[in-house]
Design brief:
Blueprint (H helix, E strand, L loop, with lengths): L4 H27 L5 H24 L13 H21 L5 H8 L2 H11 L10 H18 L6 H28 L5 H23 L10 H29 L1 H6 L3 H13 L6 H15 L1 H4 L1
């Protein structure tokens, strides 16, 4: 009995969410070795690039896909790449200031922004009541934020981290919505390889603009190992899995099913990093989950 495309979509979605959930853990582990964010991001993308090049070469060798190049909307491709790039780098910066728990709670709100941009960009019709989940999530994030301010010295780092991860959530939502529109013209595998190579190029350009070339070669050995794991398990494989699920299930369903992500990240943060989750953070997280889950009611 052949597995339906819908079931395959959900299986790939779960695998993609798990991979992306591990990303924050890898970043925090790399920061233990005092690596800067930009070189770490560059290493992550450099180790990812060969996989995407291999995929493109395979696609180009297949005549059945040769005509798809003519259908690509390059403008959307660049916008998707910029959205993902900004989302990735701001997320990595945020983890210098906040825990993986708070980072994941805020990132979890990106389906709300995805819905908002679906209304603005894709002209989808929704009731004004859809703003209720936004308000609920804002309350939840506020509870988590306030509970994390144990003393005044932690206020500024928390504000910086919260601002960065909010930018990340908004950028990721833009990428999500635009990718659904772009995928009407090209296969998910082909599109994903192209746009991730553009992200690789953006990461390398930023690195060369800010650092001397040899900085990439003087990191501690564990940093390279972590970067490879992050490239394969939390970048390459999940990017294809998520893109496939968007094509099979749609951007809204994929975003809403992302509910598993925060639970996995917070659990992994507790197990691997020994990060404690306060009662206030857990309460705020539950409120955010309820806010995102309520999206279905107002769609």
């Amino acid at each position: 009995m052949r597995m339906s495309n819908t079931i395959k979509g959900y299986l790939f979605l779960i695998a993609g969410i798990l991979g992306f959930s591990m990303k924050s853990i890898f970043i925090k582990l790399a920061y233990l070795y005092h690596v800067d964010t930009v070189p770490l991001f560059a290493l992550r993308m450099i180790f990812s690039a060969p996989f995407y090049v291999a995929v493109l070469l395979y696609i180009r060798s297949n005549d059945a896909h040769s005509s798809s190049m003519k259908a690509i909307n390059y403008f959307l491709l660049i916008l998707c790449s910029l959205g993902y790039y900004i989302a990735s780098i701001t997320d990595m910066y945020s983890l210098k200031y906040i825990s993986v728990g708070l980072e994941r709670i805020v990132l979890f709100t990106f389906p709300l922004f995805a819905l908002l941009f679906s209304i603005l960009i894709l002209k989808k019709k929704y009731s004004l009541k859809v703003m209720i989940p936004f308000a609920v999530c804002f309350i939840g994030i506020s509870i988590s934020f306030i509970s994390g301010v144990e003393d005044a010295a932690k206020l500024n780092p928390l504000l910086i981290g919260l601002s960065l991860v909010t930018i990340s959530a908004i950028s990721y939502a833009i990428y999500f919505v635009l990718s659904e529109k772009a995928l009407s013209n090209i296969s998910s595998t082909h599109f994903n390889a192209l746009f991730m190579l553009l992200v690789c190029a953006f990461a390398i350009i930023q690195y060369l603009a800010q650092y001397s070339f040899d900085t990439i070669f003087i990191q501690e050995n564990p940093v390279y190992f972590i970067a490879i794991l992050m490239a394969v398990l939390s970048t390459v494989l999940p990017s294809f899995f998520i893109m496939f699920s968007i094509q099979k299930l749609g951007a809204s369903t994929t975003a809403l099913f992302n509910n598993l992500g925060p639970f996995l990240t917070i659990y992994l943060g507790y197990i691997v990093l020994s990060e404690q989750v306060s009662l206030g953070e857990m309460l705020g997280f539950i409120v955010v989950v309820l806010g995102v889950a309520s999206l279905r009611k107002y769609k």
